[in-house]
Amino acid sequence: MSQPELSVVIPVYNEEAGLQRLFDRLYPALDALSISYEIIFVNDGSRDRSAAILADQFRLRPDVTRVVLFAANFGQHMAIMAAFEHSRGDKVITLDADLQNPPEEIGRLVDKLREGYDYVGTIRRQRQDSLFRRYASRMINRIREKTTRIRITDQGCMFRGYARNVVEMVNACKEVSTFVPALAYTFAKRPVEIEIGHEERAAGESKYSFYSLIRLNFDLMTAFSLVPLQLVSLTGMLLSVLSVATYIIVILQRLVTRGLSDGIYVVWDRDILQFFLTGVMLFSLGLIGEYVGRIYQQVRPRPRYIVEALLESGNRADRSPAATLPAAAAFPASQSTRHAS
Ligand code: UDP
Ligand code: MG
């Protein structure tokens, strides 16, 4: 496989039910574009038959298929980062494995990249997700707009195109917890957004639980902004000033109206105030913890992900992108197909 013009990147986690349908639409759609392309599937430690299905597909179309097999589940964004490191195309397009992003629209993203835009974002025309997901996502979008310099209308949609220069910059980042579209956006010189179709998941169910969605959004916020941290300290300061002021006013009021007859009970609604402040304090601690946790992860020189095997024609499995990382030294040389980054 010589250097293709287009790399299509697809993270796969427990998608056995829908993969065949994906192949049936993806390959014809790309063949119809008459563009030189490669498809990089990253099996993100699926526990179902996804890896085997991908290996079968590799054998069917080794000319354009490459498969990166993770040793465990490292998350959608790490899977995309790994695929970026392995990608060779001048243009890179990411999409989901569940056919929520119609492969037939890849051509439109390619056109934009050919026009010279180096980042093509997408806005889902009619988002086919639950009402809760749509509203929660709208709210998070708004908060992000206010706290970061990242302008992405529809952050949840992974159907995006990136020019090689942006991909190279992303590859230069060794971030542990990140959100690829936002990270890439920070490097884009000419970003653009287009409207795109969105379909219901073809098979299986969303791999994001409520919990992992919260995790993902904390990643997004903390990776690109210190504003939440600053807001907490500002709020904390404001609340302390307010509570002291309230306290003084209430005591003065009681002294004036009732004198010292109430004795020590001049303290007004202390319970509620304490309750409130405890909440604020716990939240602040938690938020600081979010940052500290990420600093801890980042300073620990552990591999961000482990590639167990690489399926590609003329397998170059020992071409380790992590050879430059100190973490790679932690793995014995005998495991040449396992490389870490
Ligand atoms: N995915 C992944 N690793 C994970 C979770 C998801 O590679 O830990 C993949 C998944 O297989 C799919 C894409 O990321 O291709 C988007 O996941 P999903 O459709 O479940 O997310 P949603 O559309 O609900 O946001
Ligand atoms: Mg989906």
Automatic annotation (TrEMBL):
One of its GO terms (cellular component) is plasma membrane. Residues 321-341 are annotated as: Disordered. The keyword Oxidoreductase does not apply. It holds the Pfam family Glycos_transf_2. GO terms for biological process: lipopolysaccharide biosynthetic process. GO terms for molecular function: undecaprenyl-phosphate 4-deoxy-4-formamido-L-arabinose transferase activity. It comes from the Bacteria. This is Glycosyltransferase. It comes from Candidatus Methylophosphatis roskildensis.
